[in-house]
Design a protein that fits this description.
The complex is a heterodimer of chains A (318) and B (297). With 318 residues, chain A is an all-alpha fold. Chain A has helices at residues 2-7, 12-27, 29-35, 42-62, 80-87, 90-119, 125-139, 142-152, 158-167, 182-207, 211-219, 224-235, 237-252, 256-261, 273-282, 286-317. Chain B contains 16 helices and no strands. The chains are: A mainly alpha (318), B mainly alpha (297).
């Protein structure tokens, strides 16, 4: 980096150093054809094209048909799938629930991950053990995690049992029974499963911060909080980018945990797009499921590029 | 890192200048921190895992309302053997392996081959191909229409169909990781071999592929984790026609009759998680460093 900016105006030195690279890169296509043949690309692109891009293109076709398990022929129907899904309010509510879920997961997972990383930052034996323990949920199946929390959060479950001990009166809150708050609870469960991964990435980010910078802040009399706010957190930007982007986009595609805890209920208040797709597919309404799949695709595509770009830009500024 | 490691054990000695900074509060924190760490592990991780293990040893009547109490009557063996037959654990385990191993092997090999060429050529067409190849990291797979495609190909409900779908889904991840890694390998290594008369296949197999070991082991871990635990794509592609561990867990848990049979569900959860947990415990240092190496640059 430093060499690049310094060498910019002085053409001679870097040009001579770079010259063989350029020749290889641009003029060397003939040589490239022999040394790095495109045939090596073929198998991977066949798999990608057939099993990833073709179904995606199909999405744009079959969302406009009446494809279902009830009849054999498939006819084009224009926008009627969209019209009926919008008309019944399902499309907007599933989209809204998915977005709320994704944002909540991105916030909680990063908050927990960062707190754990700060708690377990020093390289002691206890901390190394704790980090391994917090990584166990990441390794476990999300479906299993969902069942564990369904049992834990039952009105007569272990969590209320524990609360009863502390409050000395019987607690019977239905944690998964509220049409307003259950979405928050399932987002917390999702964050619990993945917080170990965020923690590791924040720990790696914290390690890249040079000890000299922190020492300088210490000598200037900065408090621990000031050091964190104005030095360590800004320097964590690459870790934040990775964590927020993966949490946001990963939970847009969420299914297992919500299916295992609430199955989309109560009153479909936690029905993510993928749960809707799974349910309507099971009912044989393939075209509706495809339409929602297309909605998810467009939503993620629209969300992904601005999210990644803004986060990257934030990194550059800092 | 090294300074921290040194400072750790010595933090009790008050003579160190660093310790005097921040006054006594820092000292208090370094004494409280291990307790805080252990307490958070116990509450956040220990409690849910305790519930799983203890419930899986309870008789049915006691497990209906899963509590943190010890079972009055231990029924560990009966529960596990019952769920072993009911959940067809052996065939599910083999089914999961049968799908995971070829999918991971295939996606790593084909992905690495493509990555090598994508990393080394620098034309504009190449950049477009690379962008296409990694777009699958972000974009969600079309789960419904992939079923239609597999029917047209005659692969619906088969293990081969599932393997191909997983390869399609995770190809982008592999290409992204491996291309980035190959760009850090000097071309001179290849040129030396080329002068000796080695062709592209030989250069890739003998020189590039062995150098990819670190990045491929990271990718293996990640993709194994995803494929082993996946239930969503498996629902669509194989339905109930091939047994896999997560699919059978779903069956055990949602077979109406067993809705509240927490002792069986959790016995299955233990059986299903054990292989992955054992692998994780054995290789945890490598896994943890592998997972973090790719993320922060």
């Amino acid at each position: 980096m430093a060499v690049d900016t310094q060498g910019g105006p002085v053409v001679g030195v870097p040009a001579r150093r770079r010259a063989p690279w350029w020749r290889r890169g641009r003029g060397g296509t003939v040589a490239n054809r022999e040394t790095h043949p495109r045939t090596f690309l073929v198998p991977a692109f066949v798999v990608l094209g057939l099993f990833f891009f073709t179904p995606t293109i199909y999405n744009f076709v079959y969302a406009f048909t009446d494809w279902s398990s009830f009849k054999s022929e498939i006819n084009p129907v224009g926008f009627s799938n969209f019209a009926s899904l919008i008309g019944s309010g399902t499309l907007l509510s599933a989209l809204r629930i998915t977005l709320v879920y994704a944002v909540l997961v991105a916030v909680f997972q990063n908050l927990f991950g960062l707190l754990l990383a700060l708690l377990l930052e020093r390289d002691t034996r206890v901390n190394r053990l704790s980090r391994v323990m917090f990584f166990i949920p990441v390794v476990m199946s999300a479906l299993a995690v969902g069942y564990i929390f369904q049992a834990l959060l039952k009105p007569t479950g272990a969590f209320n049992q524990l609360l009863s001990v502390f409050t000395t009166e019987p607690v019977t809150i239905a944690w998964l029974g509220s049409t307003t708050w259950t979405i928050v609870v399932v987002a917390l469960i999702h964050s619990w499963k993945w917080m170990g991964l965020s923690m590791l990435i924040y720990l790696a980010g914290l390690k890249t911060i040079s000890e000299d910078v922190l020492e300088a802040a210490r000598l200037d009399g900065a408090s621990a909080w000031q050091t964190f706010r104005s030095i360590r957190f800004p320097l964590l930007a690459p870790a934040v980018t990775f964590n927020v982007a993966t949490a946001l986009l990963g939970s847009m595609n969420g299914f297992d945990i919500v299916q295992a805890t609430t199955g989309g209920g109560p009153a479909r208040s936690t029905e993510l797009l993928n749960i809707f797709i799974y349910r309507t597919f099971g009912q044989g309404l393939f075209a509706q499921a495809t339409t929602m799949s297309l909605v998810l695709f467009v939503a993620v595509a629209l969300l992904a590029f601005p999210v990644v770009r803004t986060l990257r830009k934030r990194e550059e500024v800092l | 890192m090294s300074t921290q490691a040194v400072a750790g054990p010595m933090s009790s000695s008050p003579e160190r200048p660093r310790e005097s900074w921040g006054g006594g509060r820092h000292g208090v924190w370094s004494r409280l921190q291990p307790a805080a760490a252990l307490l958070s592990v116990l509450l956040l991780i220990g409690l849910p895992l305790w519930l799983v293990v203890i419930t899986s040893a309870k008789p049915q009547a006691e497990a209906l309302n899963p509590s943190l109490d010890l079972p009055t009557e231990w029924q560990l063996w009966e529960n596990y053997s019952q769920v072993f037959t009911q959940g067809r654990v052996t065939s599910a385990f083999l089914g999961s392996l049968l799908i995971m191993i070829p999918a991971v092997f295939g996606v790593l090999l084909l992905g690495s081959m493509a990555s090598w060429v994508l990393a080394r050529r620098s034309s504009r067409g190449n950049a477009v191909l690379y962008a296409l190849a990694i777009s699958g990291i972000v974009l969600p797979p079309a789960v419904v229409t992939v079923v239609l495609l597999l029917r047209q190909l005659g692969l619906a409900g088969t293990a081969i169909g599932m393997i191909c779908v997983y390869m399609g889904i995770y190809m982008s991840t592999v290409i992204f990781f491996v291309t980035g890694f190959i760009r850090t390998i000097p071309v001179e290594l290849e040129e030396a071999a080329r002068v000796d008369g080695a062709g592209p296949v030989k250069i890739f197999g003998r020189i590039i592929l062995p150098l990819l070991a670190p990045v491929l082991s990271t990718a293996t871990i990640l993709i194994c984790l995803y494929v082993w635990n996946d239930v969503f794509y498996a629902f669509f592609v194989i339905g109930g026609r091939v047994d896999t561990l997560p699919l059978n867990l779903f069956q055990v848990a949602s077979a109406g009759l067993y809705l509240n049979n927490w002792h069986l569900i959790f016995a299955y959860v233990v059986l299903m998680s054990l292989p992955l947990l054992v692998v994780f415990m054995v290789a945890q240092r490598r896994i943890i460093s592998g997972v973090t190496s790719g993320a922060v640059k």
